[in-house]
TrEMBL record:
One of its GO terms (cellular component) is endoplasmic reticulum membrane. SUPFAM superfamilies: Supernatant protein factor (SPF), C-terminal domain (SSF101576). InterPro entries: Emp24-like, GOLD_dom, GOLD_dom_sf. Signal peptide: none annotated. It comes from Danionella cerebrum. Keywords: Endoplasmic reticulum, Membrane, Signal, Transmembrane, Transmembrane helix. It is found in: Endoplasmic reticulum membrane; Endoplasmic reticulum-Golgi intermediate compartment membrane; Golgi apparatus, cis-Golgi network membrane; Membrane. Pfam families: EMP24_GP25L. This is GOLD domain-containing protein. It is a single-pass type I membrane protein. The lineage of its organism: Eukaryota, Metazoa, Chordata, Craniata, Vertebrata. Its main location: endoplasmic reticulum.
Amino acid sequence: QVIAGSGLDVGFTLISPSGYRLLSDFRKSDGIHTVEPTEEGDYRICFDNSFSRISEKMVYVEVLTDASQDDEEEDEDWAALAEPEDSLEYKLEDIRDSMEGVHRNLERSRQLQASLRAFEARDRFLLEDNLWRVSFWSSASLLVMLSVAFIQIYTVRRLFTDRHRVCT
């Protein structure tokens, strides 16, 4: 998501470890992409601002990975902890399920808060930019109005000045 910068748009490309282009966006302000990793290695994320060389951009990026391998290791750890006993096994399973639910909910709320912070930052930068524009043009309008008022006063006074004096 582009948070600040002129136009609020940027190019995006995702490249596989072997060098193939998997995803590509051109001049978008935000986007969500899901990719199934088919290769082992480092994937590259490239942002392109070459169409707007003068202005810089601030971009919020969040990369989420599926942690299915970690879950399998946790399952083995829990299984090693609990020797199969009737009531103890059920209680440990219940505790484990509730802890996993709390962990998922906390992780999801963290992700949502990060996204909301990015939206708030983008809106704040946009508002500050608009405030500068409004202040500038308001000041320019005020100067024009004051100069027109002074010119009108000067013109009206010159109309009523008596240049010819009559002697009595």
